[in-house]
Specification:
Elements (H helix, E strand, L loop, with lengths): L1 E10 L2 E11 L4 E5 L6 H8 L7 E6 L2 E2 L4 H7 E4 L11 H11 L4 H14 L15 H13 L5 E5 L7 H16 L3 E6 L2 H7 L2 E6 L2 E6 L1 H8 L2 E7 L2 E7 L2 H9 L5 E5 L2 H9 L11 H12 L6
Parallel strand pairs: 3-8, 3-9, 6-7, 7-8
Antiparallel strand pairs: 1-2, 1-4, 4-5, 9-10, 11-12, 11-13
Helix pairs in contact: 3-4, 3-5, 4-5, 5-6, 8-10, 10-11
């Protein structure tokens, strides 16, 4: 459904996307995971025809984003990281205008609007101005708006950023339902749990380049399915193992406090880059990442 070949975007001396290639099949949730500044939003903007690449190509549904933008726009719905509603419109009016811009008849708009307001759990708020909506309500409305014209592909740029844990999970439920209805979803995120919970396929990018891809399970298994965090000579360190029994045997050899847990995609990223995906999630991330990186060469997994 989506094919990207040797894509690059430069802003002067700054390289936002660097020789990026990937092929994303239809009907799946594809999470693009990476830290802020990795090139995730730039890639989505190129796919949405909002930014022209410096070089390389990208196509959606067989249409080139650079030479066939109108055909591409008919294929896609976009949920931007920054919400862009007219605050003086009601939720209903926001959906209506979107449908009219896509050439839908008023009859089909009304029918689609009813379904999507129910889908997003916004029926009771449909007549209220968007300025009165909470952040979670606006995010759900933005997903409903992106679905108005029956797109085959949904591009979600950090869809749960700034939301509390409960509201974030409600947005996740909407994304699952979109996938179940056959949509192809590209989801950018720096939330590890979001990628693990939602994605069928994960692309990890750093500094504009793809550094790994695969199913969440396969990527994690490549690092080791069980992790032991302990305090070592360089600070907090982590060792990886294939089984919990092997991890327990390693813990018995330590003379410092240690914890055992399931490995996750953050571990994959740290082993590949020596840095955290979201450094704000844990203080001392740089020091910890250095510890992870230094240990990876002698990692305990077999």
């Amino acid at each position: 459904m989506i094919v990207i070949e040797k894509l690059a975007k430069r802003y002067g001396s700054v390289v936002a996307v660097d020789d990026l290639s990937m092929s994303l099949p239809a009907g799946k949730v594809h999470a693009v995971l990476g830290p802020n500044g990795a090139g995730k939003t730039t890639t989505v903007r190129i796919l949405a025809t909002l930014t022209r690449p410096t070089s390389g190509t990208a196509s959606i549904g067989g249409y080139d984003v650079g030479t066939q933008p109108l055909q591409v726009k008919r294929q896609i719905g976009v949920v931007h990281q920054t919400l862009n509603f007219d605050p003086e419109l009601t939720g209903e009016e926001s959906l209506l205008i979107h449908g009219l811009l896509y050439g839908m008849s008023r009859v089909s708009i009304r029918a689609r609007m009813k379904d999507l307001l129910e889908f997003a759990d916004l029926v009771d708020a449909a007549g209220r101005m968007v300025s009165t909506y909470s952040g979670g309500m606006k995010r759900r409305l933005s997903i409903a708006r992106a679905m108005m014209h029956h797109p085959r592909v949904i591009l979600l740029d950090e869809p749960s950023v700034g939301l509390d844990a409960h509201t974030r999970r409600r947005v996740w439920d909407l994304i699952r339902r979109l996938r179940d209805e056959g949509c192809t979803i590209v989801l950018t995120t720096h939330y590890i749990e979001e990628a693990e919970v939602l994605a069928d396929h994960v692309v990890i990018i750093d500094r504009g380049r793809m550094i790994a891809e695969g199913s969440p399970g396969a990527l994690i298994a490549g690092a080791g399915t069980v992790a032991v965090d302990y305090f070592g000579p360089t600070g907090t360190d982590t060792a990886f193992f294939e089984t919990r029994h092997m991890a327990s045997e390693f813990m018995a050899t330590l003379d410092t406090r240690a914890t055992i847990r399931r490995a996750n995609l953050e571990d994959v990223f740290i082993r590949l880059t020596g840095r955290r995906v979201n450094p704000n999630e844990q203080e001392g991330g740089a020091a910890n990442a250095a510890g992870h990186s230094s240990h990876s060469a002698g990692t305990h997994h077999s």
